[in-house]
Amino acid sequence: MGRFISRRLFHLVFILIGVSILVFLMLRLIPGDPAHLLVGELASPQDVARIREKFGLDRSYPYQYYVYMKNLFRGDMGTSIRSGVPVSEEIAVRFLATVELSVAAMLISSLVGIMAGVISSVRKYSLFDYASMLLALAGISMPIFWLGLMLMYLFSVKWGILPMMGRFTMGFDPHTVTGLVILDSLLKGDLALFTNSLKHLILPAFTLATIPMAIIARMTRSSMLEVLSKDYIRTARAKGLAYRTVIIRHALKNAFLPVVTVIGLNFGLLLGGAVLTETIFSWPGLGRYVVDSLLARDYPAVQGCILLFAVIMVVVNLAVDVIYFYLDPRLRTDGKG
Amino acid sequence: MEKVEVFSELKKNKTAMVGLFLISTLVIVAVLGPLIAPYHPLTPDPLNRLKPPSRSHPFGTDSLGRDILSRVIFGSRISILIGLIAVSLSLVPGTILGLVAGFYGRKVDEPIMRFMDILLAFPAILLAIFITAILGPSLLNTMIAVGIVYIPHYARIVRSTVLSLKEQLFVQAVRSLGGSNLRIIVRHIFPNTVPPIIVYATLGMGTAVLQAAALGFLGLGAQPPTPEWGAMLSEGRQYIQNAPHVAAFPGIAIFVLVLGFNLFGDGLRDILDPSLR
Questions:
Q1: Which residues of A213-235 are buried (b: 16+ CB within 10 A; e: fewer)?
Q2: Residues B124, A268: C-beta atoms closer than 8 Å
Q3: What is the pTM of this model?
């Protein structure tokens, strides 16, 4: 186990260094000088030169990369060229908004997806099975930015049940404790803000959850069907165990392995989907921030965001590997790590 | 599996047939575009702005009074083309890299696959956005960006197929008869990697169309006045409160095309490569 994890950690470090170099180089390939962008078209060459010097843009690429990495290890991601605020601060605020949205979406997709998959497999070829698998197929084929807009039209514009955009209605005090508005409002006992922010979360979270939900449902169903055909399930039933016990204790537990992998691997989809969902619902998260920063050629901001996205992806993949290793005893006996 | 066998199996597979029907319908619409579109997709009609669906405009009109049905019809040409080109752009290099990495092993395999791992560490849409930002927003660059993003997926699939094939007896036999590496790769290994590639490429068409539409939606893809579905949706976003039809129809079109590829790909997978399930 130790060897397995250390090898994966080495791999993780390697990938992250690769990602940081790639992002660094790709950003410098973008046409347009960020210094020009910052001081505007009419600025004098002296002003542009001053900005270039201030942000180290006049130095060689290897040196710029060296300085970037050195600062990164100190927790300094540089200063946003647009706002002049440290990138780490800008990211921290928005990151929590994205976490709130992604976690909600992940909960919805896992709960609904697993439940639909289990029921479909138990009632194979029933109306529920056909309907849920058809919906799942529709789910993975749907552009989520379209679904988001349609939900917004129905629930906000037409029926007026849910708010259209944002994280909470202007005028509320978000009581920053953890940075997660829903959690903070609960901690402070502010029921009005809790209800308000929960209502704001429903549409974006559901939109973001659609694709992972569909994938999880399909995966759970096929994994359950495979397990349900195994001899030990028949044995468990023959022993006289209740059907429910067999499904939950015996089948689901074993069918869970591929599902865990799928949930983990879908985290990338969630992060990617967050870019679109946040744009539609004006959710003040990292996804929207990274697109805006990229369009404004705010190098340090983009570099920080993308590196953070990559860290999350790689760490989640590592976690999936470790959970897999832990859950599947065969890997521990057969594989030498 | 013989070609004839695949076709007869396909005919029996309802999922694949529904998918094929959806794809063929849209391909026919795309081919016949100028003949069946009731209006020119770019001609504005200021007197008929944001009109809801009616007899003269079945899908309504957009903010410039252009007929949305005609724009959706012309958009099908663009989306199908994007899918085809983007998939080819990831399939060809991905297959070559996978073949080389899998066949030559360690010294070549390590650098290629580690680079693929680095590309896979980015969420797909983010990498596509990133590449489009570098290349500049345009339809061609959208295809290139989406193409690059999915290269690692093909490389991985092909590599794993090659790894299992390499050790098989028929490959050893050709080698002992003096077959060169190139001959073994091209004549004996490559043909066996085709079925999984076909399955993945069909499903990949759907993904490519979705990703390209997403880039269009973010304003990084086709530029106005091109009737690209994602860009049309993006325009519709501004009028969602009083003219939801502007966003609704291009979205339905994307959905139908992607659904077609997913259904057909699912069916093909059942027939050609059940191990991918």
A1: bbbbbbbbbbbbbebbeeeebee
A2: yes
A3: 0.89
pLDDT of chain B along its 277 residues, tens only?
Answer: 666 777 788 888 888 899 999 999 999 999 998 899 999 999 888 888 889 999 999 999 999 999 999 999 999 999 999 999 999 999 999 999 999 998 888 888 889 988 998 998 888 888 898 888 888 888 999 999 999 999 999 999 999 888 888 888 888 888 888 878 888 888 888 888 888 898 889 999 999 999 999 999 988 888 889 999 999 999 999 999 889 999 999 999 999 999 999 999 988 888 886 554 4
Q: What angle do CA A324, A325, A326 make, to 5 degrees?
A: 90
Count of alpha carbons within 13 angstroms of residue B63, beta-carbon side: 14
How far does B37 lie from chain A, in Å, by closest CA? 24
How far apart CA B256 and CA A141 sit, in angstroms, is 8
Q: Tell me the two tokens of residue A266.
A: 């879908």
- SS3 of B138, please? coil
Among chain B residues, CA nearest to A290: B126
Prior bond to B225 cis, omega within 30?
yes
Q: What is the 3-state secondary structure (H, E, C) of A19-31?
A: HHHHHHHHHHHCC
Length of chain A, please? 337
Per DSSP, what are the bridge partners of residue A79?
A86
Six token digits for residue A104:
């909600």
Nearest to A214 by CA among A108, A123, A102: A108
d(CA A202, nearest CA chain B) in Å: 19
Q: Is A79 helix (H, G, I), strand (E, B) or coil?
A: strand
Q: Which chain A residues in 85-124 lie under 8 Å from chain B, judged by CB atoms?
A: none
Which residues of chain B neighbour A291 with C-beta distances below 8 Å? 129, 218
CA distance B112 to A9: 20
Determine contact, residues B189/B99, Cβ cutoff 8 Å. yes
Q: E strand or H helix at A139, and its extent? A: helix A127-141
DSSP notation for A151-216: HIIIIIIIS--S--SSSS-TT-----SSS-HHHHHHHTT-HHHHHHHHHHHHHHHHHHHHHHHHHH
With beta carbons less than 8 A apart as the criterion, state whether B225 and B70 touch: no
> Nearest-CA neighbor of A99 among A280, A321, A266, A284?
A284
- Residues 145-204 in A contacting B (C-alpha not used; CB under 8 Å): 145-147, 149-150, 152-153, 157
A198: left (phi over 0), alpha (psi -120 to 50) or beta: alpha
Residues 6+ apart with CB under 8 A from A288: A94, A275, A278, A279, A282
B123 touches chain A (CB under 8 A): yes
Measured torsion, CA atoms of residues A259, A261, A264, A268, in degrees rounded to the nearest 10: -110
Query: Best interface-test mutation with B: which of A30, A145, A279 has the largest number of B CBs within 10 A?
Result: A145
State phi, psi for A163 to the nearest 5 degrees.
Answer: -65, 155
